[in-house]
Write a structure and sequence with these properties.
The chain has one domain: Cathepsin D, subunit A, domain 1 (Beta Barrel), CATH 2.40.70.10. About 15% of the residues lie in helices and about 40% in strands. It has helices at about 1-15, 35-40, 95-100, 155-160, and strands spanning about 25-30, 60, 70-75, 80-85, 90-95, 110-115, 120-135, 135-145, 155, 165-170, 170-175.
């Protein structure tokens, strides 16, 4: 029921033209604390980490007015605005966002060819200690730093594929750790 309320709230705000309240924000949705505690992962293989507070059954990311799914992600405990992109193999960081999280782009080796909107460029491979969106946390996530040709950082499949499930509809996306 909590998930339904969030989805309906997003739809109502969109109809009222108040989507800016949801843009660039993610909302934690989940079951009551007892149910959430019982549903926390117990094996260390998935990379999903339970925090001190109960983990939600799903993290909700509202769909933006532009039709894309934007979220604030915590990358190594630093907030970064990302575009959720199922077409991106890895989490991809702009050089500016890499700096924000403590990665020095000038000290990286750019030896991984990748295609961008501006053509082929080279990226550097890095591993992020943690990536979290509204409590849906994954440890040791493969990422790329792209020095040119990337307008915004992308939350790609190196994070998404390690979730138990993710689903999208016209209003938003639910990430299930």
């Amino acid at each position: 029921m909590v998930k339904s309320v969030g989805v309906y709230l997003a739809a109502i705000l969109a109809v009222l033209g108040l989507t800016s309240l949801l843009l660039n924000r993610s909302v934690r949705l989940g079951p009551p604390a007892a149910e959430a505690a019982a549903s926390q992962p117990s094996d260390g293989k998935t990379g999903v980490v339970a925090s001190d507070s109960p983990l939600p059954s799903g993290a909700y990311v509202a769909r933006g007015a532009d039709g894309h799914y934007w979220a604030w992600a915590e990358l190594d405990n630093h907030p970064v605005r990302v575009l959720v992109d199922t077409g991106a193999s890895d989490v991809a960081l702009t050089a500016e966002d890499a700096r924000k999280i403590g990665v020095d782009p000038d000290r990286l080796t750019y030896d991984r060819p990748m295609s961008t909107a501006l053509g082929v460029t080279y990226a550097a491979s890095v591993t992020l200690d943690t990536v979290s969106v509204s409590g849906a946390r994954i440890d040791h996530v493969q990422a790329m730093v792209v020095p040119k040709g990337l307008a915004t950082s992308l939350l790609g499949m190196s994070y998404l594929s390690r979730l138990n499930r993710f689903e999208a509809d016209a209003n938003g996306m639910i990430l299930r750790p």
